[in-house]
Amino acid sequence: MSQQPAPAPVPDRQPLDEHAAESARAYAAAERAKTDVLASVLEDIAANGYPSPESGVPWEAARDAHLARLADEQPRVA
Fold first, then answer.
1. What are 44-69's pLDDT values in tens digits?
2. Who contacts 1 (Cβ-Cβ below 8 Å, separation ≥6)?
3. Nearest CA among 44, 66, 45, 49 for reference residue 57
4. Which residues make Cβ contacts (< 8 Å) with residue 32, sequence separation at least 6?
5. Distance CA 33, CA 1 (A)
6. Least enclosed by CB within 10 Å: which of 14, 27, 62, 67?
7. What whole-number distance in Å separates Cα of residue 61 and Cα of residue 65?
8. Residue 11's pLDDT is what?
9. Chain centre to alpha carbon of residue 20
10. Distance (Å, rounded) from C-alpha 34 to C-alpha 40?
């Protein structure tokens, strides 16, 4: 992904407080990491083809495992 610096501030923008700016940076980093993982998977498929179905996990098992992880998490306020 691009490691270019952000463009210079535009005069008509409202500045963020430091906490909000740090939150935005953390969110951007998390999204960038997810995108990098997706890109690497697609590059692997392009280079080596699709994985065999026998090596995968049925979607039902993946769903049930994910739901179990969500059930184990601490409750959060929306």
1. 999 999 988 888 899 999 999 999 99
2. 32, 35, 36, 39
3. 66
4. 1
5. 9
6. 14
7. 6
8. 74
9. 19
10. 10
